[in-house]
Here is the input.
Amino acid sequence: MSRYAFRAATLILERIERRKVSFDRAFIEVAPSIAPKTHQHLAYEYALNGILYYRAADLLLKREKISSSLRRVCAFRVAFSLLMNKKFGITVDDLKVVSGGLLTGRMLKLLKEIKDITFEDFLKEISPKKVLGVKYAIPDWLIDELLKVMERKELERLLKATLKPVTWARVNTLKSNRKKIAKKIVTLAEIRWDKDYEFMFEIVKGRERVISSSLAKDGFIIIHDKGSTVVVDALSPKVGENILDLASAPGVKTSLIAQMTSDKARILAFDISYNRMREMKNLLRKLNVKNADLTVLDSTKLRMSRRFKKALVDAPCSNTGALSSDPGLRLALRSIVNIDKYANIQYAMLKSAVENLRKGGVIVYSTCSLLPKEGESVVERLEEEYGIVVETDGVLGVPGYRNSRLSSKVRRLFPHINRTTGFFIARIYT
Ligand SMILES: C[S@@+](CC[C@H](N)C(=O)[O-])C[C@H]1O[C@@H](n2cnc3c(N)ncnc32)[C@H](O)[C@@H]1O
Here is the structure.
């Protein structure tokens, strides 16, 4: 067992909870300064494991009325998770040695008391109302919201799927082609070509090797979820079109619009974040996208001098659909997120899109959220106030939530059904 890895894992959890950053970002920011290179892989594993058991650890601390600083709570989460997950083969004595004072005496005593309990035993003692959240490390408020729109059994299937993320990648046809990539990638990984999009493939084995390969680093392929491809496909971008992208950074979907049009559409891309736009500029350069104009702007205030035909509004949201790709969200979403605030920004962006499109224009609105407030409800409101027409035929996915009157006219993608990030997609005609 590694003392460095234990400390780094503790600080990674603390950073995610304090700063609401992604798991990967917290890892990159914390691990190199705490753990020597040879211990970093273990730090990653410990931190990931700590997140997956954090709800149970917190419940235990609450039950025993142990309160402490966030850092110590995070250390307890990591320690508890290492005891529960028997694959690590770690004992309380090991934890005492490596914790370097991060675990209090009471915490260590508690760990000793529960050391022979399995996680399954632990779950048996939890009320049925709380068990899903604890088992899958999801905050109660999110479980409650999701149970309003799906059956418990379905929710459990969804949550189970988030524990087995699928890694998707795309051949960047602006720089290479499927044949060339197929030849090169076999030396790195086991892949499966997608049945819906010939440039998409799933990395079955060897994800890390692909990510660190020159294929990815030099932009011949790009790792991104299949859901993003479905969103762009819903817009059906065509050569010669002028397209607005109102929330574009870091540019995954903009670059796919360019790819689908052989870089022969003109894309006006906006984003409010300067830093994310800088990142986007580098990505587009790497992928060889030339026909996109980037502007840092609050797109709810966009006023173009002429009307456009198509717009993509891939709006900011709670990210609740991305639990599989970012395990840190389980912790970052712990405090209740202001969903209404996101819904209002999404609405304002759509309003701006409607005002900048000509009659009969097309908007694709998407969010990587599982919540109806960041999907069906926003489109219902837009329909009432703007008289737009919603129709998402031919787009992959399942209908929206049943309690929406627009259910059959919008799409949702789910990890347990579509093997993608959770997405909401609506095609809107102005
Ligand atoms: C889901 S992300 C977009 C991802 C992007 N479409 C892609 O595929 O890579 C949402 C983006 O909306 C941006 N955003 C948030 N509020 C905005 C606003 N008022 N105007 C423009 N962009 C905004 C955020 O900075 C963030 O980059």
